[in-house]
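User: Design a sequence. Structure:
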């Protein structure tokens, strides 16, 4: 019996798996009895063993290991130990073998299937009792396990610092560039099964910018500006955001100051990054008939000054270039 807390034994076990990989999977791509016993007794270590076999570049390929798991699980639907080993193995393989500069070969169906299986397993595990998702292990070990580009606004959500291991790992996998849009449908199917869905899950399942903005304004206003700057492109989208913020500041009396602050920060940003015409078009509805309204006049004036300063700067640069071009240094 191996002690999983014993580092020396762990390394010896993994090396054993690597050396005698032929004892783990039969010629017909099915697990040996010996392999199944190891999965029952030392599931985490055998997952590390399979991952080491693949990463070492031996004759046993990723496809064969995946086929063995799929073959066994397909005929043993309630084999939780083997399912857990499969999940751990895929997790180890995809988190260690790929990163910012290297991605899986998504042209291979078995690779795509494996990613889909891993993603759906995370979702399935989220439907289990909270106690089974919360972990006491060091969150730094799996905070962004797949080295994905997790958006800045996601990192501002309360759930980002959750100790729900499956949620955080799913989040990391979702923001790789390995997934297709149909994964959103998987999330939508799981959301009704959760007693308290995570905000990040709701956002991952969101159809478009408009819906995401509505969710953030309602549930996490502090992330609205960051999301808007990164993702909103059209004036109509900005208009929708400012109008919602103003309505929310009037309807949610308890959080009125919070929404006023977010709206102020958004208009301050836009006044520095839009032309006057566009800024006027995205001001909240109540101001559209009276641009001179004191509440918004400040932003319009700021925008005008910045636009004028930029025009003067452009003129000075153009004049300077013309002058340099006319000089004869001979």
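Assistant: Done.
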């Amino acid at each position: 019996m191996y002690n999983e807390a014993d580092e020396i034994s762990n390394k010896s076990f993994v090396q054993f798996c690597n050396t005698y990989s032929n004892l783990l999977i039969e010629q017909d791509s099915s697990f040996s009895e010996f392999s199944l016993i190891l999965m029952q007794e030392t599931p985490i270590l055998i997952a590390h063993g399979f991952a080491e076999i693949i990463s070492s570049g031996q004759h046993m390929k990723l496809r064969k290991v995946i086929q063995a798991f799929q073959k066994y699980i397909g005929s043993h639907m309630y084999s939780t130990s083997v399912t857990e080993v499969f999940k751990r193995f895929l997790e180890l393989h995809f988190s260690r073998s790929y990163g910012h500069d290297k991605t899986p070969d998504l042209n291979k169906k078995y690779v795509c299937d494996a990613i889909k299986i891993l993603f759906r397993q995370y979702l399935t595990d989220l439907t289990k009792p909270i106690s089974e998702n919360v972990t006491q292990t060091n969150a730094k070990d799996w905070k962004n396990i797949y080295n994905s580009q997790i958006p800045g606004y996601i990192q501002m959500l309360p759930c980002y610092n959750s100790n729900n291991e499956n949620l955080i790992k799913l989040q990391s996998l979702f923001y790789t560039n390995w997934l297709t849009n149909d994964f959103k449908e998987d999330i939508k199917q799981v959301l009704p099964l959760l007693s308290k869905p995570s905000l990040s899950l709701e956002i991952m399942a969101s159809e478009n910018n408009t819906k995401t903005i509505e969710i953030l304004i309602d549930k996490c206003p502090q992330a609205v500006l960051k999301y808007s700057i990164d993702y909103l492109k059209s004036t109509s989208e900005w208009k929708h955001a400012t109008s919602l913020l103003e309505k929310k500041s009037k309807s949610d009396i308890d959080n009125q100051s919070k929404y006023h602050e977010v709206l102020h920060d958004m208009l301050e940003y836009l006044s520095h990054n839009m032309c006057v015409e566009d800024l006027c078009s995205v001001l909240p509805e109540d101001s559209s008939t009276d641009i001179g309204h004191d509440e918004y006049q400040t932003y319009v004036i700021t925008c005008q000054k910045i636009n004028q300063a930029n025009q003067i700067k452009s003129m000075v640069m153009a004049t300077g270039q013309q002058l340099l071009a006319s000089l004869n240094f001979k």
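The CA atoms of residues 206 and 212 lie 6 Å apart. The two ends are 87 Å apart (CA to CA).
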